[in-house]
Every structure is written in structure tokens, then in C-alpha cells.
Amino acid sequence: MKLFSSFLLFAIILAVDPGSCEEKLKKLTSTGTNEQTSPTPEPTVQQNPDFEAPVIFDEAARVASNEQQAGHLVGVYFMPSWNTSGDPKRDVDSFWSCLTGREDCSSLQNPGIWGPRGRIYNRQYPYEGPFLERKPHASLGGFYKRDDPKTAKKQLEYMKNYGIDFFAYNWFFGRHYYYHLYFGPQSKIYYPEGWKIDPNRDGRVAVPGLEEWSDQLTVLLQENEKLPADKQMKWAINWCDDSDERWKLWLDLGSPESMAAGRNFPGEKPDRNLYLQVHDKITQLWIDKYFKRKDYLKDPDGRPIVYFYFPQDTESRASFYGISMKELLDRSKALAIKNGLKGIKFIAVASGAMMPNERQYGMPTRWRPNNSREPWKGGRYTDRLLFQDYVPRLKNMGFEGLTAYVYHNFFELDNKSFADMRKTYQGHWNRWAEQFKNDPNFEYQVPVAMGWDMRPAGGTWPQQTGFPSEPQKDRVHSNKATFKAKLEEARTISEKYKPTNGNTIMICCWNEYLEGNYIEPTEGHGFAYLEAIKEVYMDRRTGFIPAPPAFAASSRNP
């Protein structure tokens, strides 16, 4: 019975909404705005499922340029979607359900972020969907299945053919899951070879934890392997250890409630030793499954690169055990060396509040339980730092670089339009590139975003009142011309500081559909954003400036 209960919990929790990688919930009171109407969507493009990406005229020169680092390496974040349905016979995609309506959108119904009634709509905050202009292009299959091999192959081809060199996959890990290697459905879940199991309990693992929402990564890598070597994409992990909900599930291991429900056995408790064992398991998984692949992104010394999203979250929770971030990263690097690698290069993906009056929303460095005897019932994130005070600590924590997912502000300037966003990004680029210009051992990878609009997920930012606190920020919209201008600006700053800051441009994002950050071809903007990337980086890199075709092809239907 305990085996069944454990598996049932495993199956149920996998359906829980993990939240977007960038969805940090600012606990602000609702500001209130006048009723706003949705902008007129762009016309739907003519369906063209047989569209083929343009031929790259000098692929060999492009690859050689990358290897010699003569140009720029362009990366893009990839956000997985997941099934939000508790019914195993029904698939409700976390993206498409929110773009097509609100009835099945779990992001709008989540009481953990919106309060007991979920997202509330009224005259002041009306529902403005559906958001069908965000439907993926017909050549990708429209609202495609996330594990469709044909779609994955197209995605890889489009990235490669339009000048993107690698994708950073937002990678999630649930450290609280126990499973049984002798039980059929769980027998193929990764577990390090030779690690302890309990043969008397169907091979129950001694160290819990498993990958979450990795089905898209699996099919992407399978399709990538089938491509010729010079057509394959590089890729890296962007570890999103960012969920307070998952943290509380970890702390619940061995609690009286968990023991009574049969989820745990005596001796299974989330102490310091088990926390470190789980961290080692995560690193060993990376080594065994990913780092030794030829398509994994590595630095010139051969070290695998790992992006680390919002390190302050992990730092805060590790502090509960008296563990520093440096200790965690050093353990991972040492384990990689023990396994025959040259270490690991960690890049922090970070942003945060910068104004003194916003310190309460700053970057925490400690987590304290409300009740030390019952930590699973919640706690507080404390000892908060402003972003400009947090960044100088990164190198001593073991990081060798800094980039961002999305910058929402620069000191007092907030993003309320794409023009604002270009200014905030310029502020960050200049500050951090200048700060690290004399440090050859720490690089600033220039980030770029194509916009921000969280209305499909309820708006910016979710509050327990059921209303967003800053809906005025959900109008950060770009087009090909303004996005291309921002790419040009990023290229300029990157070239200026390339001798010490490297040559990587990080773009957010390939497919953050619920946050309005998606360069993947859609019915609304077609291939416009990919064209902009190709024109700014790839065409210049190869020296190829294409002549216009005899007939004019629109960006939405090349």
C-alpha cells in the first residue's frame, strides 16, 4: 500500500503547475488602472505548412567563425510546457490552454499565487483573451504537441538557420520525489549507478529527486542527434531551482503528516546530509546524461557550461543548513573533475530590485522557518540585498559570469513600453560590462528580450487579492524593427567589451508564450524576430548580405 501511495503522489505532483522560470511574485498591493482594451491583433497569416527555412550559403565559414570566436555566440532560453490535467487520458498544455481561453488555464486558477478565487476579472481588470496571435506558425504544427519529433526538428532547424548557436533549456528538478526502481513505471528514472537502494521495498531509492518537465528536452536531443554534425545545435542547462512550493515539499519529507499518509518511511528526513546528497545526484545526472554529449555547450577549455537561474533562491534555502553557494558549486566542480571532465563553468542568470524603497522585494540570502520544529509549514526569505549589492558577490560564490532572463527595471526606470525596456537594458549593459571589463575571469553575457506581456497568465504581478499589481507593465511590445535595433545595440556593447567579457548574446526567449517573450515563428509575427537575429548576427558573421527577392515576401509568410 505504501508503494501505491508513493507512486500515486508521484503521478499527482507531476501535474502541478511549476510556474514560469521568470515568474517571481512581487507582494505588492493592487495599484488599479482604468479599464484597458487589448491591442488589435495582427492578421492571421496564410497557412504555409510546407515552408522551408532559407539555405545557409556559407555554413562552413559560419562554423569556423564560431570556433574562432571571431563573431558572436547567440543563445536563446527554451521554456518547456507541461500537462496540467490530473487526468492521465487528457493532455492540457500549460501554454496553449492559456492562449486559447481561460477555462483550462491553470495559471489563472492557482490559489497559491492568486488567492482562493484564482484570477478575478471585472470591469477594472477585464479578460482580454484569447491570444490567438501567439499561435505557433503552421510549419511548426500550430498548437503542437510538446513531444512531437517533427516540431522539434523544425525548431532546431529554424534556430540554426537563423543564426542561433545554442539554446539554454530551463531545467527543473523535484528533489522530494522518492521512487522504486523495481516498479515498472519508475524503473527507467535516472539513479546513479551503485547508489544505495532498498531491495525490500521494491528498490526504493535512498536519495530522492528526479527531473521534471524534461520530455521536450528528450525529443529535442533525439532529433538533434539525427542531424548532420554541422547542422546540430549546441545546448546547455539553465537550472531553475526557483519554486518555494517545491522547497516546502522537500521540507515535508518525514513530517508526521507525510509519515501518516505513507509517503515516507522511518529515517527519510530532509537533513543537511540528504540535501548535499541530492545536490550530488543532480550533478551526477548532468554528467551521466548530458555533459558527455557532443552537442552540449562547453567553454574553450572543454568545461560544460551551466546557467543558474536566480541563484539567490538556492543560496537562501541552502543557508537553512549552514551551506554556502560556494560549497555547492565547488562540490559540483569537484565531482565533474572526478568523472574525467575539466570542471563546470557556472553563469548566474539574475536580476532584481535596485531602489532603496524596494528592498523588501530585494534578493534574499537566507531562509528562516516560521517554526523551527515544523519548517515544512513555511518560512521567510530574509537578509535581502539590492541587485547592485548582490552582483559583486557572485564571483566569490563560484560563478564565472553573469547574464539575465528579463530586466524589468534599472533603478527608478520601469518597463512600461519597449522603448522603456531598451533604456533599462542599456543601463544594465553599461553598468555590468564596465564593472567586469578588467576581470578576464568573469564575463558579462549581454542579454536581450523581445518584450513582456503576462496577460495570458493573468498579468504582472499575481497577488493573493486575485488581481495583478502592475498591469501597466503588460504592454512591452516590440516589432521586427525595434527588436532589431535592440539587437544592434547589444552587438555594439558586446563588441566594445569583448576582450574581457566574451562574445555571448543571450536572448529571452524562444517560447515564453505566457510572458510575451517568444521569438518562435507565430501566426502573429511570422518569422520577423528570427529574421532580425539573422540580419544582425549571422549575415554579418558570414559576410553574406542577401539581395531582395524578385517578389516581396512578408515576414509573417516568407
How would you characterize the overall build of this protein?
Residues 28-48, 460-479 are annotated as: Disordered. InterPro entries: WbsX (IPR032719). This is Glycosyl transferase family WbsX. Pfam families: Glyco_tran_WbsX. There is one protein chain. This protein starts with a helix and ends in a 16-residue tail after the last helix. Mean pLDDT is 87; it is low at 1-20, 22-69 and 545-558. The protein has helices spanning 2-13, 59-68, 96-99, 106-109, 111-114, 149-161, 215-226, 244-251, 256-260, 272-291, 311-319, 325-338, 387-390, 394-397, 418-435, 480-496, 498-501, 528-542, and strands spanning 73-78, 166-174, 197-198, 204-205, 210-212, 234-240, 305-309, 345-349, 366-369, 379-382, 401-403, 409-410, 413-414, 443-444, 446-449, 504-508. The protein contains 18 helices and 16 strands. 32% of the residues lie in helices and 12% in strands. Strands 1, 2, 5, 6, 7, 8, 11, 14, 15 and 16 form a ten-stranded mixed β-sheet that branches. Strands 3-4 form a two-stranded antiparallel ribbon. It has a two-stranded antiparallel sheet with strand order 9-10. The chain has a single domain, classed as Alpha-Beta Barrel (TIM Barrel), CATH 3.20.20. The protein is α/β, with parallel strands linked by helices and 558 residues long. A hairpin with a 5-residue loop joins strand 3 (197-198) and strand 4 (204-205). The protein is globular and about 65 Å long.
